[in-house]
Amino acid sequence: MWNNGVRRNLVAETGHDRHAAEDYRVLSELGIAVAREGIPWPTVDKGGAYDFSCVDPFIQAMNASKVLPIWDLCHYGYPDDLDPFSDAFVSRFAAYCRACAEYVVPKVRGPHFFTPINEITFFSFCGGEWGWAAPYQCSREDRTRLLLALSRAAIAGVKAIREVDPEARMVHVDPLVWVVAPRDRPDQIEAARHETHVDTFLAWDILCGREHPEFGGSPEILDIVGANAYSFGQMEYRESGPHAPLKPGDDRIAPLCDMLELVWKRYRRPIVIGETSGLGHGRASWLRDVMEESLAAVRRGIDLQGICLFPAVDMPDWHTGEWVNNGICDVFAEDGDLKRVPHQGYVDELRRWQKELNRVTRLDEDPFSDPVELQDVIDAAHRLDHQPDKDWS
Fold first, then answer.
1. Which of these, 16, 125, 192, 303, could form a disulfide with 179 (CB 3.0-4.6 Å)?
2. Is 181 exposed, middle or buried (0-12, 13-18, 19+ CB in 10 A)?
3. Which CATH number fits domain 10-384: 3.20.20.80, 3.40.30.10, 3.40.50.1460, 3.40.1160.10?
4. Exposed, middle or buried by CB within 10 Å (0-12, 13-18, 19+), for 140?
5. 3-state class (DSSP) for residue 138
6. pTM for this one?
7. Which tens digits make up the pLDDT trace of 59-116?
């Protein structure tokens, strides 16, 4: 629910609901065998009864293209009749997660992966402090309250899913950020440090049981850490509202490798970059930067197992409605429809890394017959010997 009181449906706005088969065929032809896909909680949950028919076209499209889903069960939206600060929110979310698992597990080849609540930390800022989306709160205290509520719900959701599939894996996605004080505000150094080293990790800390152990978190609940990496995740602190992104060349930028090492040392759990993308003509150079930093992290012994390019298909800016131009495919309006056109420079850079890492460039009938060999990636990391740097495109 956006701050104008209108529920946004990005699946419809991007045409993914009408182009699911094409979208997954594009991924298959690019050799991409795993994709994050959403189940819209507000749509399927009819007051505790469920109608998953809207998910069927995506299941069919993914199965046809041999793409394995990571099911995203709450992506900022929840049913209209729920208060996220209530105990009912936790129990209703757990029941919904159980129902999702019961529905999709028999229909999709395993292993099965889920992201119960996407970006708990960012959701808490968005709906708890900035008032962008429901529940429209505007204080740091409410941001913390919302984060705690969402973390409780996520833990309950994991447990409910594993009642259906004890082997199900979880990918808990949140932004990886680096916040610094303005050069002329040394009084804000501590606030910036707290946001970087405390606020960034609080949701993951709760999920793994380091904080608020009464919620039931554990390392097995946290499972796989999905760390989102964007250039605008490196920011200069602002007392109110979103912080200001650091510009390329700023000497306060931290190497992505070093940021990933913070996550690894804190949790010692497998890591994936849960989202990353450049903008416009910078997409190829951004992918190169992220790959080089990621291989430097692998060379350092960090258990980084994958990179998720987001989005596969371009998306509109939440505030302006303009196309962001950050997808693998750009979107163009044509004859009343939204045409998908792969961004060739981005695709070429993807192909270059697939060749470098000895990966397939197109899925065959059984992608599981040629699984990713992480040793190939480790060997490439040592062979290429990329060093961390602050030079982000």
1. 192
2. middle
3. 3.20.20.80
4. middle
5. coil
6. 0.96
7. 999 999 999 999 999 999 999 999 999 999 999 999 999 999 999 999 999 899 999 9
